[in-house]
Prior knowledge:
The protein is an alpha+beta fold. Helix content is 32%, strand content 13%. It has 3 helices and 2 strands; from the N terminus they run αββαα. It has a two-stranded antiparallel ribbon with strand order 1-2.
Amino acid sequence: MRITSKGQGTIPADLRERAGLLPHTDVAFEFDGTGVRIVRADAACRDGRGARLVVHLRGRGDVAMSTDAIMALTCGE
């Protein structure tokens, strides 16, 4: 692989699959003095997709139903 003038490179598909690096996966680069490693970024330092969705949806509900009424609808009672 050759690094582009913008510092970009492509991780081969088989390596991405084996490492579980899906699209939008946050990674970090570590330098050990002689080489560079790509590792998953620490999950505690970032908000995951689920957390971003909760923040986006919070306060958007407009149905005036109680939790019991919603549960009765979803459970078929």
